[in-house]
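task queued by scheduler; priority normal; single chain, no ligands, no partner chains; default sampling; output format set to structure tokens
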Amino acid sequence: MTTAERDRVHIAQIEEYLTTLSNWGRWGEDDRLGTLNLITPEVRRRAAANVRSGTAISLARNLDPLRPDPLHSGVTNVQRDSKVGEVRHLLGKEARWDAVGEEITLSPHGGNAHLDGLGHYYWDGLFYNGFPASASNNTIGSAHLSVSHATEGIITRGVLLDIAGLRGVPYLERGHAVHVDELLEAERRQGVQVRSGDVLLIHTGNAAALETLGPVYRTANPGPLDGVQAGLDISCLPFLHDRDVAAMGADGTHDVQPAQVDDFDFARPIHAVSLVAMGLWLMDNLDLTALARACEAEKRWEFLFTALPWRFVGATSSPLNPVAVL
């Protein structure tokens, strides 16, 4: 098969998935939560039963103005302006007590752990559930699909599928596309099965590779999409839909880079189909290294997953410190 023929097959499949994997209207015409609807009280209750050792593991890195882009995303802004002497500064008074305040400027979409809300991606002018992109603007932000709708947080059973561990390596080869057969093989190896309402975490070792060896680029003057990293093949999309995954996280940006097709319209199929068609919330650039080691040590890859997005009206993303409790 020639490259052009392969691209046509991939593009046709992606366009089909935008329709066949759609959850539009599944939870009502005005639904703003998408797959977070799958995290029911019963799902949360069962998830709590996965706490055994009580070990808590953060899945994020520090937000550090001195190291604002730890995974070399090329999209970052982490600034802190500390206000030492807040009482003196604001009230003009000298007192034995004082305080420190700050102003923080942050670009959540980038190399730090963050949540992609459903207002992040649109396709042909429409967001998830058919909300028009034209209604959102720079003043109000996301008109219909703000991360502030996730008021109950993301508290459910988490499942880690360790694809790097499946291959016996600390990180997959850069540019490796993880196929659905690998997800199924990881389930069998680990003795766990992804089910409705779960958060699915996929460990490729991207973060470990970037932090240990640095970035690899496919161009001499790289842009944000020119980093070479492992990610999901489009064959994984029906798996996510059929298993009713509530949210998905990865130690990269989910989509394999470079893209599997040359047509730039289809450079981010995992993001586009997940966020727009399925209403599936994504967590990019998590730190899954410590969790993968702990799961391997305990021979248990399910746990209580907790993440509380900020209630920022109009925002399409939230910085995140997810915590897995084993």
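post-processing summary
- The mean pLDDT is 95.
- The longest strand covers residues 154-162.
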